[in-house]
Amino acid sequence: MNDYKNIKTFDELIDLEHGKIGTQNRNKYEEGSQMFIVSEMLKSARKEAKLTQEQLAEKAGTKKSYISKLENGKGNIQLSTLIRIFEQGLNKKIGLTFL
């Protein structure tokens, strides 16, 4: 059982719950977090463009089921596919930041 008494920051909570940066558990957590962010951004951009999943899939050259998986954080995605979905399907550019 974790001791939360001395937790003062969100980073400390994440360290306690998922381990320090670089550990296997933390890496898994970070990967899931990033996929969640991408899935929410995709869903939001699609709705803003007033497109259905099927319409987006057609514009981006993929399948509705694939768009659905991505929006639900269930699928793996290649960077080239992500770029194609946003650029061809949604007319948006992607910017990447490496930390």
From TrEMBL:
- Keyword DNA-binding among UniProt keywords: yes
Which is one GO molecular function term here? Answer: DNA-binding transcription factor activity
| Key words, A-Z | DNA-binding
Q: Which domain of life is it from?
A: Bacteria
Q: Which GO terms describe its cellular component?
A: cytosol
The coiled-coil segments of this chain are none
HTH cro/C1-type domain sequence ranges:
42-85
Instruction: Tell me where the transmembrane regions lie.
Output: none
The identity of this protein, by name, is Helix-turn-helix protein
The species this protein belongs to is: Algoriphagus ratkowskyi
